[in-house]
Design a protein that fits this description.
mainly alpha, 76% helix, Four Helix Bundle (Hemerythrin (Met), subunit A), 5 helices, 188 residues
């Protein structure tokens, strides 16, 4: 007997994509929970630092760095789709280096935020949000670095590049989360 409905292999969603969707969904719940805690505590905290240009300079530069890195990551996918191994390699390298610069900027911001992690609950939530985002960026850097190593081994072609695609989607996610955090922590 044959099945009346045949699924084309390309139409199936891979386990890697499903795992990424589940991971990003649970991470989103985590970040939303922390943002709600931050919003609830913000009005009760005594944080007398105004939203001035000088105060926003480092986070704004960091935002630009992460945005450029997301464009670099996207160009890695475009390169691999065209079987451009050099473009793939260069784009992945640039994206992960910019990710490291972003984390260095966050560490700098930690040291100049005007809060400390032991400033009651508010400081703890602020640093938890920033710290966990930095950890996610570092996880994305590792993902990009692994894909870069695999690129150097010749693992990716224009028809075989799902790991690159998943790494870039994770990178887009940390970029999007940063835009939400930037708005919530620095602009509102």
């Amino acid at each position: 007997m044959t099945s009346s409905s045949v699924t084309h292999p390309a139409a199936r969603v891979s386990t890697g994509r499903i795992a990424l969707w589940i991971t990003l969904t649970t991470e989103s719940v985590f970040f939303v929970t922390l943002l709600v805690a931050y919003a609830a505590l913000r009005d009760e905290a005594d944080w007398s630092l105004p939203h001035t240009f000088t105060r926003l300079l480092i986070p704004a530069v960091n935002t630009t760095i992460l945005l450029v890195s997301a464009f670099m990551a996207g160009s890695a996918v475009r390169a691999v789709r065209h079987n451009d191994q050099t473009g793939l390699r260069n784009s992945l390298l640039r994206a992960l280096l910019l990710g490291l610069v972003f984390v260095a900027g966050q560490v700098f911001e930690f040291n100049h935020a005007g809060l400390s992690i032991d400033d009651q609950a508010f400081g703890g939530v602020f640093f938890t949000l920033m710290g966990f985002h930095a950890v996610h960026v570092l996880a994305g850097v590792v993902f990009l670095a692994l894909n870069l190593m695999r690129t150097n081994l010749g693992d990716f072609t224009s028809t075989h590049y799902e790991a690159v695609d998943l790494g870039v989607w994770f990178w887009y996610y940390v970029t999007l989360v940063w835009f939400v955090l930037f708005a919530a922590l620095y602009l509102l």
